[in-house]
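Posting for a labmate who doesn't have an account.
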Amino acid sequence: MAMTFKASVLSVRSAGKVCEIAFSASFGRVVMLGLEIPSGLKVGGEVKLGFKSADVMIAEGSNLNILTHNKIPAIIEKITEGEIISALTLSNNDFKFEALIPSELASNLKPQTAVTALVSETSLYVSEVL
């Protein structure tokens, strides 16, 4: 399942055939790495960004030394456990999204637990330029 949210474009850098685009969202700054700059995208403009629930990793605790820009503080609202894969319904204020993780790991989590959702810069994409 794809998750989308609104964001403002903060900066755009390109070198060779790759680009780095920084955005400001309701939950903080996120960064996307890609192979092209989407048509119509400009600094100060608005976009809808997306990522797949299968691309979200979950971390507990505050001493995270994980090298990614995209760390979204969240609360576990609901855990739907499956035999192999479990779905976590997460929220950060009005932004609700889902993470799919192995059920073996989900069994250690409880609703209302504070976690950090991690999304790789290469997993983030522009779904629409507004």
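Reply:
Got it, the structure tokens are right above this. The beta strands are 2-15, 18-25, 28-34, 46-52, 56-59, 71-80, 85-92, 95-102, 114-119, 125-129.
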